[in-house]
Amino acid sequence: MAKKSKKQQAGGTPATVALTAAGVDHTVHSYEHDPAHPSYGEEAAEAMGVSPDRVFKTLVAEVDGALTVAVVPVSGTLDLKALAAAVGGKRAAMADPALAERTTGYVRGGISPLGQRKKLPTVLDESAGAHPTICVSAGRRGLEVELAPADLATLTKAVLAPIGRG
């Protein structure tokens, strides 16, 4: 119990705790979240002064009834057919937000591909490989983590595939 409260006091989230435990180089970026902003991802890119092509959003979809995580640039959208194909499925649809929150342990707009409550199959858009580092949610609104795409893929056991649409 003492460990948990120390992590909480240090501002740790399950995502940052997982990165630290794995010994992965990363940088945490914090910014003041504006609840009125229409896009969590675009807000993060603007607040950090980073190209939206390097900031990735974490989306939870259902592929043939199984929850699957998709990580795509905030500058585009998720191609559900491509996501289904990437995991050998036939049909994909966005998951119910409440189910996504319960399953991952994170709130919408703060879902991280790292440190989720339940390990889900993950697909990372192949465009991530074009950057030395990318940013993903660190587990809450207003908190992003920057890391190498290869490290993200390794930690989440992600499949790399063209699942984003410009």
List its salient traits.
30% helix; disordered N terminus; single chain; alpha+beta; five-stranded mixed sheet
User: What pattern of helices and strands is seen along the backbone?
Assistant: HHEHEEEHEHEEEHEE
Q: Percent of residues in beta strands?
A: 25-35%
Question: Which strands sit side by side, in order, in the main sheet?
Answer: 5-2-3-6-9
Main beta-sheet strand count, sense and barrel state: 5 strands, mixed
pLDDT < 50 stretches: 1-10
Outline, from the CA principal axes? globular
Helical amount among residues, as a percent range?
Answer: 25-40%
Number of strand elements: 10
Measure the end-to-end span.
45 Å
Q: Averaging pLDDT over every residue, what do you get?
A: 91
Instruction: Briefly note the structural class of the backbone.
Output: alpha+beta
